[in-house]
Design brief:
The protein is of the alpha+beta class. Helices cover 24% and strands 31% of the residues. The chain folds into three domains: 153 residues, no CATH class; 99 residues, Sandwich (Immunoglobulin-like); 76 residues, no CATH class. Bound molecules: zinc ion.
Length: 341
């Protein structure tokens, strides 16, 4: 940013791609706090071996910084997609910091499939935690993650929007109001909606005078069939580099409605294990609340049904299994990955 060095930008891009190559469906990475060689199968192997899958507050803080700077430098939506994925699936589900310094540290993606057997030997943490994931506090008081959790939370507000003369970029669809000046106009843009619980995002403009600027909206790569309306009229949308642009003269009362349709999809962790998949809906992973390995056909996994209270139901081979986003996992044992038959 300071020196305009192409070399440093390329290093940051390469670093991001290296992380992406070894990321879980949640966007988290680095089981046991180690970067793994892409393609080595070690991230997959960690599912059966480790409960220390992603160092959540520190990792999310680092990931959000990296993606925020890459987004600023490149204006490519893929960095925003990645930031959003890490936010909803990892740090937003971290347990609150305790007054005595106990903090949430590792997200646990342990997902023992029915074919794993002797992988867990005596003396490993699995003897304590068993198979499947659990949300637990670190045994340490005031660990690194007790510092980065408040830092990452404080940064939520600098991740949502970006501004340059003549354009405002919306990266995260957080209910909020953005105030800024464009030439002589003072503008307030209100963002509403329950995204990602629902697929609709609404924006409303208030401005002291009519003013031209480009509104740039991030369209996540998964949002097939995304649609845009301005003042109730459908607008043709092109999405170069992951952002749609509405360029016009804005007036008070102008509204924008964005639909980001969410269809269930499966995401595998490792090409060598296409049977092990996470169920995704929009930016979020749905975690299966079960202490036994969950098996389902891909048709069953893609036909999950929404139930009351932000839950989904999966008709699995062993009966109905409840699925929830990470923010709704309480003390239950869960599987991040299911076995698709
Ligand atoms: Zn940490």
């Amino acid at each position: 940013m300071v020196g305009g060095s192409e070399k440093h930008l390329r290093a940051a891009k390469n670093g991001f791609d290296m992380l992406l190559d070894q990321s879980f469906a949640t966007g988290g990475w680095g089981p046991d706090e180690m970067l793994q060689t892409p393609g080595s199968g070690k991230v997959f192997a960690s599912l059966a071996k480790s409960h220390n899958s992603f160092e959540t507050p520190c990792g999310a803080y680092a990931h959000m910084k990296l993606t925020r700077y890459l987004l600023r430098c490149t204006r490519e939506g893929r960095y925003g997609d990645s930031m959003e994925r890490v936010m909803y699936n990892t740090v937003l589900g971290a347990m609150p910091l305790q007054p005595d310094g106990h903090a949430f540290y590792y997200a646990d993606y342990h997902s023992q499939s029915s074919t794993d057997n002797a992988a867990d030997t005596a003396g490993t943490p699995n003897d304590v935690l068993g198979s499947g994931g659990k949300r637990v506090y670190s045994v340490h008081r005031w660990p690194c993650c007790s510092g980065t959790l408040p830092q990452v939370v404080a940064d939520y507000w600098i991740n949502g929007y970006f501004h340059e003369p003549g354009a405002v970029w919306v990266n995260l669809y957080l209910p909020s109001a953005l105030r800024w000046s464009e030439g002589n106009a003072k503008i307030e843009m209100e963002l509403e909606g329950a995204y990602p619980e629902t697929s609709e995002v609404r924006l409303r403009m208030k401005t002291t005078r009519a003013v031209s600027f480009a509104l740039k909206l991030r369209i996540p790569a998964w949002a097939d069939g995304a649609a845009l309306q301005v003042n109730g009229r459908s607008v043709q949308m092109a999405v170069p580099s992951g952002f749609a642009t509405v360029q016009r003269k804005w007036r008070t009362g102008d509204t924008v409605k964005l639909q980001l349709p969410m269809k269930p999809r499966l995401e595998i962790l490792d090409e060598a294990h296409p049977e092990t998949a996470a169920v995704m809906l929009g930016p979020r992973v749905l975690f299966a609340l079960a202490s036994e390995p969950v098996m389902a056909s891909s048709a069953q996994a893609l036909a999950i049904q929404q139930a009351e209270g932000g839950e989904w139901m999966l008709q699995s081979a062993n009966g109905v299994v409840k699925m929830v986003p990470f923010t709704s996992v309480q003390s239950q044992t869960y599987a991040t990955y299911i076995r698709v038959t």
